[in-house]
Amino acid sequence: MIENTVPMEKPKVVEPTLFELSSPGRSGVTFPQPDVPVASLPKSLLRKELPLPELAEVDVIRHYMHLSKFNYSVDGGFYPLGSCTMKYNPKINEDIARLPGFAFTHPLQPIESVQGNMALLYTMQEWLKEISGFKAVTLQPSAGAQGELTGVLIMRAYHQSRGDTKRIKMLIPDSAHGTNPASSGMIGLQIVQIPSDKHGNVDLAALKAECDDTVVGLMLTNPNTLGLFDEHLEEVVKTIHACGGLVYGDGANLNALLGVLRPGDAGIDLMHFNLHKTFSTPHGGGGPGSGPVGVTASLADFLPAPIVDIVDEGDDDIPPLYGFINPPKTIGRVKSFHGHFGVILRAFTYIAMHGPEGLRQISEYAVLNANYLLARLRSTYNVPYDRICMHEFVAEGMVEGSDVRALDIAKRLMDYDFHPPTNYFPMIVHEALMIEPTETENKDTLDAFAEALIKIAAEAKTNPELLHEAPHKTPFGRMDEVKAARELVLCCWLPEDYASS
Ligand SMILES: *Cc1c(COP(=O)(O)O)cnc(C)c1O
């Protein structure tokens, strides 16, 4: 643990780039003698000033190994980033994804030659239907937000197909994920924000006041971003259906519900899954996700095309033949080929490894872990909507008698080797710290994290500067995050004269 003193000098780390390590004549490759006549390249292809660093292989490896240690990862430590479900990703997912039969197939191969992949996609659709209670599933969308976009396009197409063209309003609670209004806004819908009541539920009176025949539907994040299950879910769904609207469920939070509640059974009309969250595929840093969408029977005809289906049942001797079908009223294609196959495959492995009982256990432990942390922390940090939480909870990042803010607490946690929680979201909690431990952490880790937060609250009173200037232990100190966002430098490795030429 770090000393309880404020270092006088901020850490200043200037990393040498490969160019600065370069020395003329060093090389990491030896070319064999050519066994064909040497030809000269056309002049136009040769760049005289092409700056390539000259280094041995070992220098390059050490450089990148060194840089890689600056990254915080879920394989390196606890990552309670609320709403992101940074659970441990079992390595068997990677082993399966690397099997040559999967890794070396091409999406343009003849369909008869990829029947194994097709069977896998089909089975995944069936499993997601079983898990969620929906009647049909598309695996195309490439992430949660694209699943939402697919969903709102389906909602609009459904209303239009019935000649119901005056529906332009999407109702979105203020406790929804930020991508919900963004997805509806993208297709030009009017967003109407519905406030939360004092228990963190959708305010029913406010919802009813907005329900009329111009409503496309409601986008419900449930559990919401406070980590709370809406206590009036049934009535919320009934209210929207009564005015002819559809209920979209944000299923990125399925980690709290597996094997416990099927959104399709609860009256939700359609929902996206975040395979990269709930079903454990690596995510973050803009890497590929997967956001399949499940729908009720009455919306199945609108799903993106194509969908994998059994096109010939076969018989005792001949296995079924899988092919693609186009739903009759499809909104069209939302993603090239068949979605992110490699991510779907990892999620498939995860579901297969756990089975129904295992999936239910995931949610039970995710909820238990969040409630354990909540119980340990609620006397230190104020929790404005304090009731039994689901997979996460939101506390106020403030300490009485100190001027520290959520950001200071989050940065100080890095000195204790923890990834900070999500902060300043949801916006209905002042100085929000949104904590999602996930089911993969043991009690020792949860205790160490709670103790770090309790210790930080004490530091906030006795030595607030320590927090204001945190982090102290990381290779780089407190960043100017606004400047970093506004003046983004994406290729700092280029030698100056080359970059400016
Ligand atoms: C993560 C998340 C999303 C968006 O998913 P992406 O895959 O990041 O696009 C939507 N809603 C909720 C509740 C989420 O947690």
SSE topology string: HHHHHEHEHEHEHEEHEEEHEHEEHHHH
How many strands in all?
A: 12
Shape designation:
globular
Which ligands, by name, code or SMILES, are bound? pyridoxal-5'-phosphate
CATH architecture of one domain: 3-Layer(aba) Sandwich
Enumerate the spans where pLDDT stays under 50 for 5 or more consecutive residues: 1-8, 497-501
**Sheet with the most strands: spatial strand order:** 1-7-6-5-4-2-3
The whole-number mean of residue pLDDT values reads: 93
Task: Provide structural commentary.
The chain is of the alpha/beta class. The two termini are about 45 Å apart. Helix 6 (about 145-160) crosses helix 7 (about 180-185) and helix 11 (about 340-375) crosses helix 13. It has helices at about 20, 55-70, 90-95, 100-105, 115-130, 145-160, 180-185, 205-210, 235-240, 275-280, 340-375, 405-415, 445-460, 465-470, 480-485, 495-500, and strands at about 135-140, 170-175, 190-195, 215-220, 245-250, 270-275, 295, 305-310, 320-325, 395, 420-425, 430-435. The chain is globular. It has a domain at about 90-350: Type I PLP-dependent aspartate aminotransferase-like (Major domain) (Aspartate Aminotransferase, domain 2, 3-Layer(aba) Sandwich), CATH 3.40.640.10. The strands form 3 sheets. Strands 1-7-6-5-4-2-3 form a 7-stranded mixed sheet, with helices on both faces. The chain has a 3-stranded antiparallel sheet with strand order 10-12-11, covered by helices on one side. Strand 4, helix 9 (about 235-240) and strand 5 (about 245-250) form a beta-alpha-beta unit. It contains 16 helices and 12 strands. The chain binds pyridoxal-5'-phosphate. Pyridoxal-5'-phosphate (PLP) binds near residues 83, 177, 289 and 291. Pyridoxal-5'-phosphate binds near residues 83 and 143.
